[in-house]
């Protein structure tokens, strides 16, 4: 279709049509106006994949590692490739706006959706986001960079009031957005739920109209987070263009009345509509259909997912060079132990989740490398909060098709089966969240019957679990086993489906190998507690796992570890623990997980420990472990990526993107994170992450930027200008020589930090201002060049209300992490004249 002539279309639009364009039509889309050839825009969640327009029964997609894993790659070129693939995936789902990337910083490791953001440093986050955005938008797909700004808690964040200095906002929480505006120009911005200094962001003219549009000169569209609009006139006057999702709650007749009463000017309305129409023009390529023969799962996409996963894995310990393992040495035996051995953590929960084309299992990948006869497995313990999803050994009743059969009713179905369903479908998803996918003719208050045939793979006891968003019962062979209809347990922990579902109730069943069992759930979409908008659409979750005695299973795993050469333990957190809409209360893993790891290490000191989590965890057994590998949430290539690194097919090059503290009390936000006080004072100021630990001289467990390799690197020849004058030059060059002095090819992350030695204000000891990942064959060397500018030397002066690079002495520090002990080269230089600036 042709580009919209914005001026002429604006002149033809009626006021009712203009208002209609400024709010969503449904959960994911805006309105189309055929009269003026204005198409609808359709959004899709990211940031680790493009799910499309349905939580339930949507198309499968490529599931990348979580964003903290992407951050751990320290690789802008790789993020550009990721963005390009996600832009393509977005188009394949029929969408034009990818709700990503997330660039907020983790001031606390407990934030529930901290795994969705690149890391704790604003320069790392902003530059990786820029590469990601440029990749996505090269496909004609808009990014909605989020969550603007300082979205640092997940639980009921709409009630949170953040109080923070302008300097702290500018230097930390706004800086990633500012960098992305300068380097990538994202076409859309999504606002956060909370308020800052007493004003909700969606209605804050200083943050939107002043900062984004005037100070930074940005000309894109601002949309609310879903249900993150709290006013009519205030939000539109502040510059918040698009209310999402639909149907509207704050616009429509309310906005018409606000215009009539002169609370909103006509020119303000037109400005927002202009931004919307301009966005449609920018995404013209993604409005065209994609050739289906080139869409979907492909070797190229698989290879990229695997590379991101392997390049993100961080080798934290490797005493006596136990790693890499050698699969060619005969006679060695291996055991795969831990919750991740059977249930690898591929993603955190919430908006970031999607159904991938496949999941590479660690057990399959290990057997492929060393042969099935050399591998034994034992889970040892469970690490979940909710029983793992019932996703295997199930068939649609009466068929050989894998999955569940769903029947929708407008009234309660009777037990005789004579009530005719309004609609039917099948699914392979054991978590069925109906927020955006109900059959036509189904309205609130519907009933659904979900049926599956479970074919027992072996004789054992199984534990079946049910959570509901609504009211429901679970039956096995016609016998009621779980009742969440009459009453539901009081919630004591976060629950699935954005913390909207009930607590899980479980039942234990004896099954015999080869025998079939009919599992049926009846759900009524009638909430026992109030819901909000689309989140009130109902859902259910069916889990299933082996039921065993914990002490017996632990003992079996320990004996297995004792009997093999190399036990590999994979354990940590999963989407039960880290998810949107909730925050963790502790850094600790489940107690039984720590107990398992400690027990395995006690009988076999060569045990290889692989942890999975999106954000830092407590590691009380770290001194006992000779090896430690952190694998994040690895996406659909999790199993293959872990084994690629353990067996040396890939030399690890990941670096920690979020500092791992020794204890929660050491973290910058310890005193002001959580729900005890809804007013959150950012008393740590500009000192979060490594800035905080270094300033307090309180070393963490693992520092930002830290990570080991199977080879060694040596730095030399640091070249820095002796004097710099920003009033006469926009940029200056720094270079350093890096040599791979080991016997293996490898990649090194060269980190450049800047120290301000004569500042008039309290600044961090050093700040990351450049990084480069370089790939070096064994024995080779390379000169690594950095181009620095005013961003590298400035702080926000609250006195002058501008960025200020003060005359004085600075130092360039080349380091392998933010830990002072990992600094390898330093060289001072002088800034000969003061430099003040604003904007980008």
Describe this structure in words.
With 840 residues, this protein is of the alpha/beta class. Among the domains are: 313-385 and 550-652, Glycoside hydrolase family 3 C-terminal domain (Rossmann fold, 3-Layer(aba) Sandwich); 392-427 and 439-536, Sandwich (Jelly Rolls), CATH 2.60.120; 713-837, Immunoglobulin-like. The chain is built from 19 helices and 37 strands. The strands form eight sheets. Strands 12, 13, 14, 16, 18, 19 and 21 form a seven-stranded antiparallel β-sheet that branches. A six-stranded mixed β-sheet has the order 9-25-24-23-10-11, sandwiched between helices. Helix 5 links the parallel strand 2 and strand 3 (142-148). Helix 16 (550-563) packs parallel to helix 17 (591-603). The longest helix has 17 residues, at 76-92. It starts with 5 loop residues before the first helix and ends with a strand.
Topology:
Layout: H1 6-12, H2 15-21, E1 43-45, H3 67-73, H4 76-92, E2 97-99, H5 122-137, E3 142-148, E4 161-163, H6 166-173, H7 175-183, E5 188-191, E6 195-196, E7 199-200, H8 206-215, E8 221-223, H9 233-238, H10 253-260, H11 266-282, H12 299-312, E9 314-318, E10 334-337, H13 339-342, H14 362-370, E11 375-378, E12 394-395, E13 404-409, E14 423-427, E15 431-433, E16 447-455, E17 460-469, E18 471-476, E19 479-484, H15 496-499, E20 505-511, E21 516-524, E22 539-546, H16 550-563, E23 566-572, H17 591-603, E24 608-612, E25 627-630, H18 638-646, E26 679-681, H19 690-696, E27 713-719, E28 723-724, E29 732-740, E30 746-756, E31 767-776, E32 781-788, E33 795-797, E34 802-805, E35 808-815, E36 823-831, E37 835-837
Parallel strand pairs: 1-2, 2-3, 3-5, 4-6, 4-26, 5-8, 10-11, 10-23, 23-24, 24-25, 28-36
Antiparallel strand pairs: 6-7, 9-25, 12-16, 13-14, 13-16, 15-22, 16-21, 17-20, 17-22, 18-19, 18-21, 27-29, 29-32, 30-31, 30-35, 33-34, 34-37, 35-36
């Amino acid at each position: 279709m042709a580009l919209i002539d914005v001026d002429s279309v604006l002149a033809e639009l009626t006021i009712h049509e203009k208002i209609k364009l400024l709010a969503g039509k449904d959960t994911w889309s805006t309105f189309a106006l055929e009269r003026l050839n204005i198409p609808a825009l359709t959004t899709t969640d990211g940031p680790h994949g493009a799910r499309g327009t349905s939580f339930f029964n949507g198309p499968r997609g490529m599931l990348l590692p979580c964003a903290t894993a992407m951050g751990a790659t320290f690789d802008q070129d790789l993020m550009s490739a990721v963005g390009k693939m996600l832009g393509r995936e977005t188009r394949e789902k029929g969408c034009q706006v990818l709700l990503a990337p997330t660039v907020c910083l983790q001031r606390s490791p407990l934030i529930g959706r901290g795994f969705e953001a690149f890391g704790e440093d604003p320069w790392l986050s902003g530059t990786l986001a820029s590469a990601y955005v440029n990749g996505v938008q090269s496909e004609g797909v808009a990014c909605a960079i989020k969550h603007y700004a300082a979205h640092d808690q997940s639980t009921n964040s709409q009630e949170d009031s953040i109080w923070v200095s302008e300097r702290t906002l500018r230097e930390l929480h706004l800086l990633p957005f500012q960098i992305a505006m300068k380097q990538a120009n994202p076409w859309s911005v999504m606002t956060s739920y909370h308020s800052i200094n007493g004003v909700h962001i969606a209605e804050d003219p200083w943050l939107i109209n002043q900062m984004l549009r005037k100070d930074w000169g940005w000309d894109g569209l601002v949309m609310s987070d879903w249900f993150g609009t709290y006013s009519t006139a205030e939000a539109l006057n502040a510059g918040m263009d698009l209310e999402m999702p639909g149907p509207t709650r704050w616009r429509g007749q309310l906005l018409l009345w606000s215009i009539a009463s002169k609370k909103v000017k006509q020119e303000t309305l037109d400005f927002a509509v202009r931004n919307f129409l301009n966005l449609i023009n920018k995404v013209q390529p993604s409005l065209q259909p994609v050739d289906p023969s080139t869409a979907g799962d492909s070797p190229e996409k698989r290879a990229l997912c695997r590379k991101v996963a392997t390049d993100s894995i961080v080798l934290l310990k490797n005493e006596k060079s136990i790693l890499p393992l050698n699969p060619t040495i005969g006679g060695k035996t291996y055991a795969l132990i831990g919750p991740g051995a059977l249930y690898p953590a591929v993603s955190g929960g919430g908006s970031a989740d999607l159904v991938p084309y496949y999941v590479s299992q660690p057990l399959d990948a290990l057997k492929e490398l060393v042969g099935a006869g050399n591998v034994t497995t034992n889970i040892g313990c469970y690490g979940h909060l909710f029983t793992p999803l019932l996703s295997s050994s199930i068939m649609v009743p009466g068929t050989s098709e894998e999955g569940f059969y769903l029947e929708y009713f407008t009234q309660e179905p009777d037990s005789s089966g004579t009530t005719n369903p309004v609609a039917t479908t099948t699914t392979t998803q054991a978590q069925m969240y109906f927020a955006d996918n109900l059959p036509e003719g189904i309205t609130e208050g519907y009933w659904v019957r979900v049926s599956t045939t479970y074919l027992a793979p072996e004789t054992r006891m199984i534990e079946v679990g049910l959570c509901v968003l609504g009211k429901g019962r679970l039956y096995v062979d016609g016998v009621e086993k779980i009742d969440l209809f009459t009453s539901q347990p009081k919630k004591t922990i976060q629950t699935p489906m954005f913390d909207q579902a009930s607590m899980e109730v479980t039942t234990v069943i004896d099954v015999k190998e080869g025998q079939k069992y009919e599992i049926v759930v009846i759900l009524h979409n009638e909430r026992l507690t109030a819901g909000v908008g689309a989140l009130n659409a109902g859902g259910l979750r069916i889990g299933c796992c082996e039921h065993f005695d914990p002490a017996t299973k632990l003992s079996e795993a320990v004996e297995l570890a004792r009997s093999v050469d190399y036990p590999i333990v994979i354990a940590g957190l999963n989407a039960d623990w880290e998810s949107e809409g909730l925050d963790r209360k502790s850094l600790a893993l489940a107690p039984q997980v720590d107990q398992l790891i400690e027990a395995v290490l006690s009988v076999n000191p060569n045990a290889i420990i692989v942890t999975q989590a999106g954000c830092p965890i407590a590691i009380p057994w770290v001194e006992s472990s000779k090896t430690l590998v952190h694998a994040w949430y690895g996406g659909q290539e999790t199993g293959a990526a872990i084994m690629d690194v353990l067996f040396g097919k890939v030399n690890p090059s990941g670096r920690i993107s979020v500092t791992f503290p020794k204890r929660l009390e050491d973290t910058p936000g310890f005193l002001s994170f959580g729900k005890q006080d809804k007013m959150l004072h950012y008393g740590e100021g500009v000192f979060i992450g490594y800035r905080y630990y270094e300033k307090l001289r309180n070393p963490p467990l693992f520092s930002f930027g830290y990570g080991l390799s199977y080879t060694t690197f040596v730095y030399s020849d640091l070249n820095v200008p002796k004097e710099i004058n920003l009033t006469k030059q926009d940029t200056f060059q720094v270079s350093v020589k890096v040599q791979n002095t080991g016997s293996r090819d490898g990649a090194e992350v060269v980190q450049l930090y800047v120290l301000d030695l004569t500042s008039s204000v309290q600044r961090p000891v050093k700040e990351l201002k450049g990084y480069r990942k370089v790939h070096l064959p064994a024995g080779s060397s390379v000169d690594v060049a950095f181009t620095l500018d005013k961003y590298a030397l400035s702080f926000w002066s609250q006195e002058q209300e501008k960025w200020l690079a003060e005359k004085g002495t600075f130092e360039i520090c080349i380091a392998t992490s933010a830990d002072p002990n990992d600094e390898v080269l330093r060289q001072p230089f002088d800034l000969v004249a003061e430099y003040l600036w604003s904007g980008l």
